[in-house]
Design a protein that fits this description.
Elements lengths: L1 H14 L7 E5 L8 H5 L3 E5 L3 H9 L4 E2 L5 H11 L2 E7 L8 H11 E12 L1 H7 L15 H8 L4 E9 L5 E8 L7 H12 L5 H27 L4 E4 L3 H10 L9 E2 L17 E2 L1 H6 L4 E4 L5 H7 L1 H5 L3 E4 L5 E2 L1
Parallel strand pairs: 1-2, 1-4, 2-3, 4-5, 8-9, 8-11, 9-10, 11-12
Antiparallel strand pairs: 5-7, 6-7, 12-13
Helix pairs in contact: 4-5
Length: 329
């Protein structure tokens, strides 16, 4: 993700006219991982981050940060104090905000007449295509498609002028938004909207099929794990992610099936997964005695994990995946 944000920042900086005089805002700036590249380039910037603890981390790294929620009121305050923005960024943030109308009103207020807002979030089309139901959890208030974003923003005189798929988080979409009529939309926007209609993302039947696929996936995964445990095989989870909480609870997978979950986040180690109470341990425990199988709960990072854990594979270990289908690698 750090590399992803670096490349995104480079692209934005390259395309900002009059870079040194530009003003860049990030909504949901977290610890400043994305925005610090603008700070290091000497570009005027502001992060809007309601979590005080991570906002303080960003400030300690030289990233200007306001600790507040972004909405119509805070946008007016920022515009009055700092002026309007040339670029507004947001990553995996808009899908968390319940009041989308206040959010869009804030964008309209804070964005310069010729400015752009660029945000990316998990993409509904990929969730349905892959059957990645683990994207569905309490933080995600919305699941966007190009069509839904177009319909949302048109009520605020804003429009999507570009949309580009991104591989992160198991399939995301990056939307570029401008004031209506300020820029000529890319033909790719209409192409994506047409593909969504072809995929019948606008039809209830699509989501009934999606639900049946989820149920089938649960049955296949639980049957596989139970069968392996009856054979005396050890199974360890890999990645105590938000996604894993959805899967483990929906499938009823507990410590009787998965011995523990290996995770690099020190704050999680020594604790338990929510609901099903599987112990979370450090990767040292994973490496000290390799299990027979590892349940890949962080499947969206599969390539880097497989490269990192090559020793596990060489030792005869196998990976269990459940997206897009339940299988053993």
């Amino acid at each position: 993700m750090s590399v992803h944000f670096l490349e995104w920042a480079k692209r934005v900086i390259k395309n900002i006219p009059g870079t040194k005089k530009a003003f860049v805002i990030e909504i949901g700036s977290n610890d400043g991982t994305l925005l610090r590249h603008f700070a290091n380039a000497g570009i005027r910037h502001l992060g809007v981050e309601p979590s005080h603890n991570v906002a303080e981390i960003a400030r300690n790294q030289g990233v200007n940060t306001d600790s507040c929620f972004f909405n119509e009121d805070s946008a007016r305050r920022i515009a009055a104090r700092d002026g309007q923005a040339d670029v507004i960024l947001a990553a995996n943030c808009f899908c968390h905000i319940e009041d989308l109308q206040s959010l869009a009103a804030g964008l309209r207020i804070l964005l310069k007449p010729d400015g752009i807002a660029i945000f990316e979030d998990p993409y509904l089309g990929e969730i349905v295509r892959l059957g990645s139901y683990d994207q569905i959890y309490d933080e995600h208030a919305f699941y966007f498609s190009v069509t839904s974003v177009l319909n949302w923003l048109k009520h605020h005189d804003l429009e999507v002028v570009d949309a580009q798929p991104q591989p992160v988080h198991g399939g995301s979409m990056r939307y570029t938004v401008a004031h209506r009529g300020a820029r000529i939309p890319s033909p790719y926007v209409e192409e994506l909207r047409r593909k969504e209609l072809e995929a019948e993302l606008d039809r209830p039947e699509t989501y009934l099929k999606f639900f049946r696929r989820i149920q089938d996936s649960r049955t296949a995964l639980v049957d596989l794990l139970r069968g392996l445990r009856r054979q005396g095989k050890r199974i360890v989870g890999y990645g105590a992610t938000s996604k894993s909480t959805t899967v483990l609870n929906f499938c009823g997978i507990g410590p009787d099936l998965v011995e523990f979950i290996s995770d690099t986040t020190t704050l999680k180690q020594g604790k338990y997964s929510p609901g099903v109470h599987i112990p979370i341990r450090s990767p040292q425990d994973f490496h000290a005695s390799y299990p027979d199988f590892a349940l890949l709960l962080a499947w969206n990072h599969a390539d880097e994990i497989f490269a990192k854990e090559h020793g596990f594979t060489l030792a005869g270990g196998k990976w269990i995946r459940y997206v897009p289908d339940v299988n053993v690698v």
